[in-house]
Every structure is written in C-alpha cells, then in structure tokens.
Amino acid sequence: MKKDSRIYIAGESTMEGKALIRLIKERNYKNIINLDNGEPDLTNYSQVKKYFRDLKPEYVFLFAGKSGGIKTNQEMPATLMLNNLRIISNVLSVAHKFEVEKLFYLASCCVYPKHAEQPMHPDMLMAGPLEPTNSAYATAKLAGIELCRAYRREYGDNFISAIPANIFGPRDDFSVKNSHVVAALMRKMHEAKQNGNSAVEIWGTGKPRREFIYVDDLADACQFLMEHYSDENPVNIGSGTALSISDLAKTIKEVTRYKGNLHFDSSKPDGMPNKVLDSSYLFSLGWKPSTSFNVSAEKTYEWFKI
Ligand code: GFB
Asked: pTM here?
C-alpha cells in the first residue's frame, strides 16, 4: 500500500474497522475512501457494485458481517450465516470485477473443528466437525476463506485471509444480547459493583480456554499482512495469551475492582472446549503484539465505564 493508495475498510464502523482507521491515519495513509459518508448496504449487490465502480478502491480490508458471542450464535444462526455469506459473495465478486490490487479477509477462530488439537494450525481446517453453537456462522466464515483461495486460483486475484483469536477492546459490543465474554464480564461486574450485587453469573464451567487479542494489535497485524503476505493459506493472528474463562473472570474482577463472588452456571454452554492459535508463522514474519492482556483489559474498561 502506498501512502496515497485508495483504501476501503468494509465494516468501517466495527471496532476492528475503527482501530484500523486510527492506525493507518497515524501512519500517514491519506486516502481512506469515503470516510464518514456511510457505507453501502454490503448485503446488496447493486449497491456494492456502484460503490466500487464510483470510488475505485485499490486495497480492501473486509471486516464487515454480523457477529456475536455464544448466545447470539445460538439464537440467530440463520441471520448470521446469511448476512456473512451475502457480504462475502458481494464484496469479493465486485473486488474481482473492478480489479482491486489486494483484498484482506478477516475470518474468525470458530472456523476450526471443535476438537482441534491445540494450538490450532490452518492445516487443521475442515479436519473435523465444527462446534454446534456456532457452526452456521463458522461455515460462512470458512466460505470466505475458501472464496479468497478460489479467486486466487481461478483468476490470480491477490486475495488473502486471516484467522484472529477472540478480539476485544474499546468500542466492542457490550450489549447483554450480543457481547463476547470479555465485554460481557466487564459489563456484568461493573453493574454488579454499582448495584451492590454480591455475585455475578459466569456462563459455563469456567474451564474453556480462549486466546484474546487486543483490537489495536489486531489492526496492526492486519496492516502488516496486507503489506507482507501474499499466499492462499489463511494466517492465524494470535497474541500468545490464552486464559481459562475462570482465570479471565478473576482478571476482570481485578480490573473492575468488583468485590463480590463469581458464580459459574454450568447449565449454560461452554462452546468450544479450547481455542488457542498457533501464530508461529505470523511471528516468524516479524510481527508481534505490543499490548499485554492486563493493560489492554484496563484500557477497555476505561473506555467502557465513561
Ligand atoms: O466470547 P464467547 O461468547 O465466544 O464465550 P466463543 C467464550 C466463553 O465464555 C464461553 C463463556 O465458554 C462462554 O460460555 N462465558 C461466560 C460467557 N460468561 C459469559 C457471558 O456472560 N457472556 C459470554 N458471551 N460468554 C464465539 C462464537 O464463541 O466466539 C463466534 O460463538 C465467534 O462464532 C466468536 O467465533 C469469536 O469463543 O465461545
């Protein structure tokens, strides 16, 4: 990407999109297209086509697509799957049609099989059944990875994809309905502290392990890959920091200064037993995360509580 390349961040209002916009502006990329004027409805092919025809993006980061935590995935599998499939199909086909220089697609770590060996490596994709709580969404995300690969193979398009660990940070979705675990626990403990509640409910057994990546580190890795990677296999983007949900809850208790008890409700789903990424390939290219989990959790809580 040159400093004046025409860059389109599909999903510019997501936390990932906002983090990337801030980062590449700081790095003097001057031509992020159409910022602040709204995006087309990415599920609508005609609107996406018109947008690309009129604005001629050269580099595309595809972050868009409905997502949510384990509850949203259980309650809205069709909505999540269709929305993502439509966006993937529209954006990739139009990016091909208007000959963008390069496209980066952000998948999700739920694309790995439920019982994949840990840490998970892209070679393990499609080697076993998906986790049932998010199999619909994960299938759409896998389709995105495969469609990038297919455009490369059939037409030589420079489309790449990456698989992030569980992302969190400022501007995350903190809603009770959609939130992922970091945002959900911050909200629950913050509100319990304010209301003087003596216990907070944590879903599941507390045993699953998750790897978390701070959104600013994620954005940095996405830009790094756009600059330095060009191949058909997806690249894992992890932080190297994995925690059990039980340890995560204890850390968030410290961050929020909540003094009550943690009550684990094992009638609620655990989801995948473990999701830890093997990011050695990305690290070998020279990228490393720069924010520790505790510091990024503090920053996220500071943003939330204001
Ligand atoms: O973050 P989370 O919803 O996503 O849940 P997944 C992670 C773990 O935290 C699960 C537990 O074991 C949850 O049961 N957990 C405990 C909670 N308390 C809570 C709570 O109050 N809220 C939430 N949300 N979780 C999602 C997928 O899986 O991760 C998506 O469903 C996507 O497809 C995303 O891949 C990254 O890691 O389980």
From this structure: 0.97
